[in-house]
Design a protein that fits this description.
Structural class: mainly beta
Order of helices and strands: EEEEEEEEEEEE
Shape: flat
Strand order of the largest sheet: 1-2-3-4-5-6-7-8-9-10-11-12
Number of domains: 1
CATH architecture: Beta Barrel
Strand content: over 45%
Distance between the termini: 40 Å
Number of strands: 12
CATH superfamily: monomeric porin ompg
CATH class: Mainly Beta
CATH topology: Porin
Radius of gyration: 21 Å
Amino acid sequence: MKSKIAIAALLLLPLSGQYALAEETAEEKPELTVSAELGFLFKTGNTKSGDIKAALNIKHESGQWLNLLAFNALAKKLETQDEDTGKDSFESTDNKWDILGQSNYSLEEGGKNYLYGSAYYEQDKFSSFEYQTSASFGWGRHWMETETSSFFADIGPGVKYDVIRAMPATATDAAILESSETAAIVQAQALYTKQINDFVEFKQYFVAKQAFESDKNSVYKSETSLTTKLIESLQFKFAFRVDYDTEVEEGFENTNTETSVTLVYSF
């Protein structure tokens, strides 16, 4: 088995923070900002289940460098009853995590154009992949930046490495042996941010990892979020995420969606 390409990255949930200085003093941003995200959902009664959504986002700016790192995890358990023994037990119905990172180098101080390098790693226990990794480098640009809105996008070549999960034979399907696939890709990603008012912020993120060969798996991800400030450092976040793989094993869906409601603490 090949070694994993990535640790890395973020683009997904960028952090922000500004501190007003004294009168006639230039406004400065902190070099390092961090936010932690956590959400719980517990059900009792006819159906018993427990869901946990967690995330950690780090942003570091220094000179012409911008470094981003994001970690996301999701776990779901549902209470089921054994048909033979009648005993109740909790069974995992979703269990996945990913880490994504990116470094940008501005071609001129305060300029719009930058070079980037990014890497991504994902494990999803209930997908047809044991794990998926990718790495890319290329050029990007801040196409728009105002007091309330921003839009930036980048594009570049890269490589993607997928490990297909081994599956036992069933009554209708033959066994699947573990295998791997390496593909050259072109990666394009974009992030639009809109500050609706002093308390509400909208974000739309999209990334496409298009394989050059038509029979290789291509990946598309989108996340739409709305964040409401509760107090200075605490926010309420609603997010909708879509993951799409063009090539999956029989019995698995190409499209997976995730709706989450979490609290975000920034420091």
